[in-house]
Batch of 4 targets.
Target 1
Amino acid sequence: MNRLFYIGAFIAVTFVVVAIFANWIAPYDVTVPDLLTRYASPSSKHWFGTDALGRDVFSRVVFGARISLEVGISVVSVSAVIGILIGAFAGYFGGIVDKILNGYIFNVFLAFPGLLLAIALVAFLGAGLGKLILALCVIGWVGYARVMRGQVLKVREYDYVQAAKALGASSTRIIFTHILPNAIQPLIVQASLGMAGAVLAEASLSFLGLGIPPPAPSWGTMIEESRGFDILTSAPHVMFFPGIAIALTVLAFNFIGDGLREWLDPKQRSR
Amino acid sequence: MLLVIWTVVTLVTLLMELVPGDPATTILGETATIEQIENFRKTHGLDRPAFFFSYSEDKGFVWNGAENRYLDYWRGLLHGDLGVSFRTGQPVTEMIAERYPKTILLAAAAMLVSISIAIPLGVVAGTNKNKFTDNVASFIALLGISLPTFVLGPFLVYVFSVKLGWFAPTGSAYAEDIVLPAITLGGALSAILTRMVRSSVIEELGEDYVRTARAKGLSERVVVYKHVLKNGLIPVVTILGLQLGVLLAGSIITEKIFNWQGLGLLLLEDGINKRDYRLVQGCVLVISITFILANSLTDFVYRRLDPRIRLS
């Protein structure tokens, strides 16, 4: 495992711990404004300063981690389950099922740029956490399905799968007991990169005003609220800290995904 | 490709059915009279059935025949007509045609930026595999992938507009206004391309023809830039083509940051924010079709570049 993997894992664990214990870590209420301390610079009282409404930026960044984690885990788990089931179905049964799923359905979903499809769905469905997660799952499952299909195509020809078939095991049993455990490694890589993608997509949609509505402290919303020229001139910290938080979180999951991929693929290890 | 285009058009057409409630009420507001709502529905064809058949609890399944909104949209589309804006009454095709070139210009500039960064950086990393330079270049690339446009953009504005005063923070009126948006949009792509060039260079350096070229006494520079890069760029072209769609979608964010008057800003500000669903439909469709065509073009170029694929 390379060094970057461990750095990524360390940041990701910190991110998860911060998200879980946000109530204890954040010193201030994230939604209550304090107009007397608007745009206060970082100090011992407000580590990351305050925003346009005098809210503590550190507390908002901490609670922002919780939103990102919530969206990331929901999107990754729902997309992975749907993608794995559909991918396994396409790969195992092959024939016309595979032609329709892999040759047509997957291509249709890949024909839309992911973010655009999410934007379109949220634009028509309306904003909100549930709808955001739904939109991200709609764009996310195809990646897992393709990886799973590829793995199933490879693993289903192995002797032990043929043996299980000969012994009369049902298709469900073969897929879940014999194929899935041997196809799981690339799916873990996909999930790790998917987590980075989900955090990024949530922040992007919130930045565009299509994600979680204010006053919820989404990192994307925080950047959107602070990107005006006047604010950048007088209080750049309001944009700086949520920006660092997003970049670090995405970087961490990319490090983990890359590290795992390299570890699992000896060909890449030698590169 | 035609089947995919047909499905994309169908999905985009049916997106309107996802709007909670009646689009007419959403646009006109709760205070609109019944007459105003009916007029609106009639003007925009919303009084016609959505599809070939419909279902309601009291009537069950009803066959609507060819007189439906889905076919109306197709008929219009085949004549280059994407309907009229719910808000302004202006043809959507006209509104898009006005903004489309700006987005394409931004995407092209972003590609140019990414190529200019990625090729030298990727070659340096690839030819110095596992050395300090490689680690630094790879780290920069991964950082570039992880740094979202909406973080990079305001950061560039802070440095180059607020601190140095070199560029205007927003706008698209002057030629130099494209610099910051192009770097913002091309940043992530340059990172992806750098990794791709690095991998390709490493792979090609192990090939027999490289050994032959070196044995002929060619300088390392000629070997890398004349032989290795020529073959190593083939997969890069594919990625570049596939990333055009990502650039088009990503331009929505970049255009918002820099108030760049392109298709993304039209979709976001005039379409989504003002709930002009017809305009949203048109913009999503145009971006998606551009993406599909770019992918097909990439496939074509890829086949032309690599004789092995062409022959197979």
Target 2
Amino acid sequence: MVNYIWAVLIIAGTVVGIATGNAAAVESAAIEGAKEAALLCISLAGAYALWLGLLNIAKEAGLIESLARRMRGVISALFPDVSKEDEASGYITLNIVTNMLGMGNAATPFGLKAMKALQASNPCKHSATDSMCMLLIINASSVQLLPLTVIALRGAAGSSAPAEIVLSALLATTVTTFVGILAGKIFQRTGRCR
Amino acid sequence: MQIVTLISSLFVPLFIGGIVVFGLAKKVSVYEAFIKGAKQGFTTSIRILPYVVGFIFAIRIFTASGCFDFLASLLSPLLKPAGIPPEILPLALLRPFSGSAAVGALTTILNRYGPDSFAGRCASTFMGSSETLFYTTALYFGSVGIKKTRYTIPAALISEVSGLLASVFICRLLF
């Protein structure tokens, strides 16, 4: 699916760009976009090193395991195929908690760790498990409690009350997370690999 | 409100300090453990690079070609009957693709219509209710070599549309 969406963006962009005489703009957009993306990744290396370093301290101290044990009830309700001893549930918990706190830079390395752990017990390696789908749906529905970036942008735009959207954003993200989980649960039987 | 921002500003330092204190209490050689984990930082950032480049450059081509404006003008008449301010359409369309593009779209809305306008409040509310979907999906599944993403994208898109509708509804009630 990602294949088609990506292809549509590129094909529509190049064809329309050439047809409307925006070919030069398309060229510079492609090159600038790639450069900006690479710079972003390099700038993330430091943050990832920081969080993965701290994560490893937590892991060696047994914190990940105990977190996984404590959260087992909640996690296994949402992620049915996470096995009991699985360190995946520890990483999933960390991914969700850091997302809730708006620490996106920390959430990504934890999320990738969770995917790796989930993949280890995946019986068919090319197809996503229900737990993987659920992790992605929860990540995409945003569970952030305090939208700090939005508050900052509103402040910069001269709002008289930059933080007044905190409650509405919290309600909206509760709706999206709930709807996402529900949709995931409904679709769960579809396309399963046997 | 002050209290909420205070707590959130204290959280990260407490989180960092707490892990180190806990590690010491459990007799972990914390510095060595940190370095061991941190070594994966650079490889992780390099590993995500192709996925980030793939989506950022695609969405840039799409917007620069004029496709995006055309799509937005095509869809905006559909929004009015649903009571959704058409001003927030660019944000809604960009949100699943790129975080930085969504920040750009939100900034445009806030500056053009005002952060305290109805469109500005709806856009701000919606921004906090969903995340970049396509890039995250490509990255998370790509990192472990999974090709079939099954129902991930449909379910997440349903969630995003519900966020758009909920944001407008909630803003009508609250403001």
Target 3
Amino acid sequence: MSDTVLKQRAVPNVAPVLQLGFTMRLQKIGLNVTLLAGLALLAVVLLVALCAPLLTPYDPILQKLDEGFQPPLSPNHVLGTDNFGRDVWSRIVWSTRLDLQIGLISVLFPFIFGSLVGIATGYLGGRLDTFFMRIVDVLMAFPFLILVVAIMSILGPGLGNLYIAFGLVGWIPYARISRGETLAARNLEYVQAARTIGATTPRIMLRHILPNVIGPGLVYVFTGMVLAILIGATLSYLGLGPQPPTPEWGAMIAAGRQFLLQAWWLTALPGFALLILGVALSLIGDGLADKR
Amino acid sequence: MGRATYIRKRLLLSIFVLFGVTIVIFGMVHFLPGDPAMILLGERATTQNIAALREQLGLNRSLPEQYWMFVSGLVQGQMGTSLQFRQPVRDMVVSRVPISIGLTVYAMGLAAVVTFIFGLLAAANKGRWADQVIRIVFLFILTTPNFWFGILLILVLSLGLKWFPVAGFGATFQEHIWYLFLPALTLGLQLASVLIRNLRSQVIYTGRSDFVRTARAKGLPERLVLVRHVLRNALLSTVTIFGLQFGFLVGGALVIETVFAVPGMGQLLFTSITSRDYPVVQAIVVVSAVLVIIVNLVVDLSYSFLDPRVTYE
């Protein structure tokens, strides 16, 4: 008993002081371990996307039929080749650009539109508020993925239509979040002060309320990006996304599926790429949420 | 507001949402670019064919008339004829609904078990390595695309170790349970990764409250404190999230069905999309939205009975 007490007291002298120092220094510059890990991982992914031409020895859509189905760690192909003899590493690296783009664009417009709707409905209230909230109620009744799939089935497959489908339904969470924040902020002193000095309603909403309520929505952007990338990959797995031979992780998984027994790497490896990007964004989202 | 008024208002909202859902689906077909008749017949269609089909589908009538046809058909269970299979859509969809619901419920059951075990384990070891490991493992599962996770499970557990069937559905109930285990696990683990976070923080939060301290102070065994006092209160919020995730689960189930070749609505939905079989897609979207509306209604109503403190705003 006394031994353990002694041990517990004896150990903290060196290590935890250093650790505390590190965490505290991080917090001083507005970071925490989760956030830092996420940012570092995302930086690697961004670097890979930017340097794609330098990192890839082969054209991602170049077919060499006589070099098909080479396993990973083959002499000329680090991650092997697919059924058309295309270099899997090159395809995974090039598709990083596309999947990052899907994540960004699918979230950008819904974020802007949703936040503005939320601020306007929360601040103005009345019929506008009722109108938009009823739309939200109705759209929430659809499983998100199925609604997107249904819209895509009418618009047809392809990247542009994927963005339209996301734009039509993706704004809801941002509208709900910023509306809630605006409802809490609309009667605070700084808003009343702005009203007293005669600021116009649009000015109050955009210059005074927006900067103060946008935070939680911005945090949700990272969760939204993970969701968008996962759903984007799911849609292209189902054949509704970017069309072949464009390298895209979801489409690569789908294409490799039929060769699962002969060539597991065609299915397994692109999934890991998706996972790395997803984990990076999730960690950033978690880290930002912890900060608040 | 009393409970009766709340229930009445909540029911009214559901009916309104149901009405909205039919408007959205109707609008989707009619206002998005592209003439349905032309899409249905493909590029080689002649003008006469298109005109005939427009007549047959009632596309020349006024919008309110068309909407009325659509809704009254739905109410009577008429969902049109499949263009690909030339069968009534109702017969094709109805037989598949129980399979998809079964898979969803199975996944929810597995998710509940996993959540219980790992949520409590994480909360009990807050900040220690077990907590960190659980957090990281389920963060990975949460961000894994579920169709890929399913394929990996097939690769390792079915093709590699030969523990489970690769795909299919089986004939008897026991076989269904056996065949659907991997698809349900894929969905259940992902749902659990959302729930575990919530249960963990709720258990920790409740553990700090005064009534738990009182229970400990009066000498109640730790196990009873946990089950009777902490868990009962912590579970309320987890159950709500459980309900909110239902929509995601249904969407996921339809995708997972295609991975494991389960003959549910998902398989039909995605083959119908590729062949542009409009009425079928429409019917499945309606059915899944109605399921979500029902589940949300049940969760909201049961919540008002489970927790006496609920205020009806």
Target 4
Amino acid sequence: MGFLDALLGRRKVAGPAKSDRLFAISTAYVTLQTSFDIRSRGVAGLVFQPLSTGDFAQIVRDMEEIVRSTGEETGTDLETRDDEFGYRWMVLRDPDVEDLVVGVNAVSEALQSGGYGDRLLAAVFAFEDANGKPLYFIYNYKRGWWYPFVPAPGAQQRSVERELQLKAQIGGELPIEPELERWFPLWGVPI
Amino acid sequence: MMLSIMRRTSFGRDPGLQARMLLTIFLLGAVYVVFVAVLFAATHSAALIILVAGGLFLFQLFASDKIALAAAGAREVSPADAPELHAMIERLCLQADLPKPRVAIAQTPMPNAFAMGRSQKHATVCATTGIMELLSPSELEGVMAHELSHVINRDVMIMTIASFFASVASMILNFGFLFGGGGWGDDDEEGGGFLPVILVSLMVYVISFFLMQALSRYREFAADRGAAILTSRPSALASALLKISGTMERIPSQDLRTAEGLNAFFIIPAKTKQSIAGFFSTHPPVEQRIARLQRLEQQLQGTIGAAA
């Protein structure tokens, strides 16, 4: 927000960041796998705010069709879910991380070309460590940065220690959100 | 792989930190030498002043731990009272090759911990009930290792010695006219009058204040580093620091979807860095401590060279 916006109380919803760092995850995954024994769970989610306008519903239908048609070649599976926060999840399943990234990118591109890029919240990729414990890498579209999210046992608990370790492990390859106060959790991720 | 073969020590050294610490100690010593020289040149009662200050110094060294513990409302606990805390500290002492200190607990919700005592054999570490509730076991271990590192580095002793002449200077500022024999330069028989001594004391006090704050910050960094090496879990201590400083304010627990109206959706200009405030504090800003612990974690994970 600029100075004038603050002065006049104007608020614009920020669109996706200009520099797109979504694809960084596919190279980072190679390191995660080989050096740190972290494996993909073969699932990724795109979370966005659904609108009740007619063209938005149409765009979402088109979008699903696009992914389904490309999915027939790559074998990517797609389903849609609504969560208790009123957000919609596009959940993609594919054992190949690269195909997942391509699929997530296709969905977000479709939303953006429809003019709804500002409704995009985040893309989430699910991984697990050698002990089978889940860990997530979240891509914040507004910021264009990644950050780790590791849920811990207990209601709405997260393991900050593990997240900081992950940052140290992969920060050289994955562009990690530098401001820790923006590492927002996604409780009850449906993936 | 090369990585696993080369990892004999997990952490590199930090020559920059050592150099800054040495320079600070040197400057402090230089200021004090000049101060004592001026003191003896200007007044005959210099020996008396230093004698009185020396008495206070010894009292401070021997009684400060008891005073601090009493002020914090802390009470020593036996292994039967707090078995987990004792077991944790025993393990860390084994690891650090350190005699076991006394363990105390303060009943307060404020998350805090501190180490006291003039030597390794007369040390007390204290944790508040607040910090024990707030932190997970691995985070608490990081904090206790930080406090034990203060004991290993003899920080209480070093800071007390470092502050000795600063307290002499402050004594002269407070009671200067008493030592000066009541004269404000009306008779210069004592050699120079007392006004210059007051001025020099003021300068010594101000300069040594800043030097001591810097020294204290460097020793905090050194203790963080010591804790990371003791536990080999730098991120646990970093996580603890984040929790203690404005609990959860930095790494949020609020969901991205509910934070939408706040700031997840809006690009707010980055905060301006604090600059002058850092000069006055005994502890370095948490961001800097986290950044250094992150460097250690990277060295541990082998993602950057240990020599860096």
